[in-house]
Amino acid sequence: MLHITSLNNQQVKDWKKLSLKKERVKQQAYLVEGFHLVEEALEYKKDKVKQVIIREDLLEDENFLRLEIEEERLVIITINIADEMSQTETTQGIFAELEIEPLNFPSSINGPILLLDAVQDPGNVGTMVRTADAAGFQGVFFGKGTVDLYNPKTLRGAQGSHFHLETYEGDLKDFILQFREEGYPVFGTALNEDAVSYKEVFVDEPFALVVGNEGAGINEAIIHELDQNIFIPMHGQSESLNVAVAAGILMFHLTN
Length: 256
Prior knowledge:
- It is built from 10 helices and 12 strands.
- By secondary structure, it is an alpha/beta fold.
- It folds into 2 domains: 98 residues, CATH 3.30.1330.30; 142 residues, SPOUT methyltransferase, trefoil knot domain (Alpha/beta knot).
- It has a 7-stranded parallel beta sheet with strand order 8-7-6-11-9-12-10, with helices on both faces. A 5-stranded mixed beta sheet has the order 1-4-3-5-2.
- It is elongated and about 65 Å long.
- The relative contact order is 0.14.
């Protein structure tokens, strides 16, 4: 068990750097914050948990006492260090450092997969990961230009759902070509003359669903690889839906 009391400690500096993508890539690690996410990490990815970091005044907290943590993985920190590390307005005082798992393509297709094409808002991405988990998706693919999964805001939005499903990253077009070679359909949310209402689409096999950038939509090169474009009819005055809301509607429709 390690006890750190100085803000100038190198380990504290390294943890703080993990808020930046380039440092997460360099260290091949990321942080989750809060009792719920730490508990999820220990339950579903215990072998990837490098350290659990807890504020010294919380050692007798019932939320901490129910966690099963080996003493050699436990690091105790002061209140000011916790405040310095936190990415939230009011920290719960507990963090876990985990190894990043490289997973570029699924080894086999067993269920639907959500494909993200340059979706940039971390809140939207986190919400879609959480919704994909709830809808029973096999995984989520992070295409180029999409905010990374380990962004602190993405992790807060996902609420631990990235521990429950597979995540991949890479070239979206390459993935789609491989996916279609398996004989499964790929749907997208591009609105053009070939698009049909989502209410007309039903599928009883694994499929991929592509959602695009908040402003530009799906890249034109990706649109050409789709089997079918689908849209959600608007009944009010709004011209469009938030991408995470639209993805949620489509994911649950296509899996039911």
